[in-house]
Write a structure and sequence with these properties.
Helices cover 40% and strands 21% of the residues. The chain is α+β, with helices and mostly antiparallel strands and 184 residues long. It has a domain of 108 residues: Alpha-Beta Complex (endopeptidase fold (from Nostoc punctiforme)). The chain has a six-stranded antiparallel beta sheet with strand order 3-8-4-5-6-7. Helix 2 packs across helix 3.
């Protein structure tokens, strides 16, 4: 009788243990990997192709800032402008210090046409101005991340009529080892 009771108890405990292990596995599967979340967000929602050659650190950084409101002169998640957003990306993602405003940042690049742009390059705009007034970071597939004065930090398409109209040039930061780099 005692053997039957112990055997029955052992079976119940084994079943309970298996059920508990299954539920933990299901819970763990529900918790998404942050890298996977960022990849899914850019690939599916924003239409940016995130692949094995992409800089996932760049996409994660942008993902964390999406929706941050625009604030001229701002540089925090309470509000940020285009050049501060670009500067933050270069500081945190590329470990490169760039200047603070879009015109000064342009002085640090080799100018590029749209068809020469690669992920991480900069895009410059002359919006209702004769001088550069806006900057963003190119992601590929004509998409770029920036702090829009009307929508905050967003992903936009260079082919949208507004951005196509005001696009000035792309640019790639000149590295200090490059012979074209000029120290100020």
């Amino acid at each position: 009788m005692i053997k039957k009771f112990l055997f029955s108890t052992l079976i119940v405990l084994a079943a309970f243990s298996a059920t508990f292990a299954q539920s933990k596995t299901k819970e763990a599967a529900k918790v998404e990997d942050p890298d996977n979340l960022a990849s899914q967000y850019f690939s599916q929602v924003m239409g940016v192709a995130v692949n094995a050659t992409s800089n996932l650190k760049l996409y994660k950084f942008i993902y964390e800032w999406i929706g941050t409101p625009y604030r001229f002169g701002g540089n925090t998640k309470k509000g940020i402008d285009c050049s501060a957003f670009t500067k933050a990306i270069y500081d945190k993602v590329f470990n490169t210090t760039i200047l603070r405003n879009s015109r000064d940042i342009f002085s640090m690049v080799n100018p590029l046409s749209k068809d020469e742009l690669k992920e991480g390059d900069l895009v410059f705009f002359k919006i209702k101005s004769r001088s550069i007034s806006h900057v963003g970071i190119y992601l590929g597939d004509n998409r770029f991340a920036h702090a829009s004065s009307t929508r905050g930090v967003v992903i936009s398409n260079l082919n949208e009529p507004y951005y196509s109209r005001y696009f000035y040039k792309g640019g790639r930061i000149i590295e200090p080892g490059d012979k074209e780099f000029i120290e100020e």
